[in-house]
Design goal:
- Helix 10 packs across helix 11 (256-269).
- This protein has a single domain (9-218, 259-281), classed as Rossmann fold.
- The protein is globular.
- The chain is of the alpha/beta class.
- Helix 3 (79-85) links the parallel strand 4 (69-73) and strand 5 (90-94).
- It has 11 helices and 11 strands.
- The chain has helices at residues 33-42, 53-61, 79-85, 98-106, 118-122, 142-152, 169-177, 196-204, 220-224, 233-252, 256-269; strands at 9-10, 14-18, 25-28, 69-73, 90-94, 111-112, 127-133, 153-164, 192-193, 208-214, 274-281.
Amino acid sequence: MTSVWDGYALPGGRRLERDPQFGFLRVMPPPSAEETAAFYASAYTNPCLVHDPDGRAELVVDLVTGSGRVLDVGCGRGEMLDAFRRRGWQTVGIEPGREYADQARARGLEVRETVLTDEIAASLGSFDAVLLVHVLEHLPDPLATVQTARRLLRPGGILYCEVPNDFNRLQTAAAATQHLRPWWIAIPDHLNYFSIESLSRFIAAQGFELARVTTDFPVELFLLWGDVYIDNPEAGRAMHQRRCRFEQAMREAGAGDLLEAIYERLAGLGVGREAIVCGRKTT
């Protein structure tokens, strides 16, 4: 599978190359460890705020019998862990950012201020669910992280992966019609660019049965309607609020099941803002 983005030229003499096995796009050559460290130290001040943590927690809870133990890798301020705790789960977080780890701990959550390594994993025990929420797009070696997460899961455990659904057709249509740059390319922040299809293939290849593949609101629709929020934070907040009102209204009307069915159908078409894949560890 190839597209016009294969070999796409990036600043600094870099390009996008497609992973030959899984089909996602990656930045080559990747930024150096020094460049990446400097970026996160100076420019990365806000973690990705999880949209609808309760809804996302429910996706996982529905796939596990009873309550369990969950690990959130890159837990930020602990929104997802808090949603699981309210559902009776035992929670552990990993967060390398001191400020965010402190904020999560202020919620009364157990959070280790580190990154996930095999050594750290060996000290954590086993889990019924491991969360990788907006993690894989940042990593020079996403495969190693997924393999480590798999080892942490009990048989039948759930790996929840969420990444931006980039280069989807709504996104590229919006860029073309509104004469926008490919705003979703963010270097050195994002090194890997997954689609719903390529993330599903990637997770399945690591010994997981695909238990749920879905997405969320396709915010690129706003761009196609003429509401250009790119490089306009105020407009972006307004679009986000409209999206949240839509989802809240659906749930208040007792149509949450319809909302989830819509998002699963959109995922089947390859569109939606996020790629969300739940994989069950096979024995």
